[in-house]
Amino acid sequence: MSNLILIRHGQSIWNLEKKFTGWVDVDLTEKGKLEAEKSGYLIQNENIEINYYYSSIQMRAKNTLKIIQQVLKDNKNFKEAWQLNERHYGALTGLNKIEISKKLGEEKVHQFRRSWDIRPEPLQKDSQFHPLNIDTYKNVPKENIPNSESLKDTYDRVKNYYEIEIRKHLKKGNVLIAAHGNSIRALCKYLFKLNEIQITKLEIPTGNPLLVKFKDSVISECRYLDDERANDLVVF
After folding, report:
1. Cβ neighbourhood burial of 236 (10 Å; 0-12, 13-18, 19+)
2. Residue 9 annotated among the catalytic residues of the structure
């Protein structure tokens, strides 16, 4: 028996401001820090020792993981991977979701946010929000830095990283991944064999750990740890 815990970072500053964030490296709000702390206690209550930790290289995921480790009193090193980053929203990056919905129409924006293989228009490389101009990504090979991504693009990089790096450790112990709404959606599509329609309906909440139990490499159980928010979630 092994366990995989997936946690979307707590509320970020741009979550609060309802902006398309993607690869812009923003931090947690105070509420987001509290969500991360609560996540730590929820995990602690399960009496699961985490053997391997992973996060994206974005600070909202890394800081969520650090807060969780503080609660667990666990100072193991964790591995950062750009492959677990949030989806890149292209030219939508930095725009307010409500305002752009009024301008383009809710249906069009929903298509950009939830479609499987449609990319928003690319973000110009001279934009302050482009990853090429953000110090966080200076060590990511330039050929791997996107100008825009579909959910399928995100799925491909997350799936490949899971297969190459994470799955071997999951066979030996318990793994916790702190990442983002779309990177976790992508991994859930892979793990639960969701089709392209099902994945468009999947919502991943901030700060609510998803516990996936494996027995003989087969998923035997899956549940969110925050029961109070269970009615608002899609449970597999």
Report:
1. middle
2. yes
* This prediction's pTM: 0.95
CA distance 41 to 34: 11
- Pairing relationship of beta strands 2-8 and 210-215 according to DSSP bridges: antiparallel
Q: Place 110 in a pLDDT band, splitting at 50, 70 and 90.
A: low
Q: Sign (positive/negative) of CA torsion 54, 130, 92, 20?
A: positive
Catalytic residue from among 9, 88, 130, 180: 9
86 is annotated as an active-site residue: yes
- The amino acid sitting at 70 is Q
Choose the catalytic residue: 35, 80, 86, 149: 86
Q: What order of strands is seen across the sheet that includes strand 210-215? A: 79-80, 52-55, 175-179, 2-8, 210-215, 218-224
Q: How far is CA 192 from CA 39, 67, 169, 230, in A?
A: 23, 28, 19, 19
CB atoms within 10 A of CB 117: 10
Cα separation, 33 vs 106, in Å, equals: 31
∠ at Cα 69 (37, 4), nearest 5°? 95
> What is the CA angle 86-7-165, rounded to 5?
70
What's the pLDDT score for residue 20? 96
First to last CA, the chain: 19
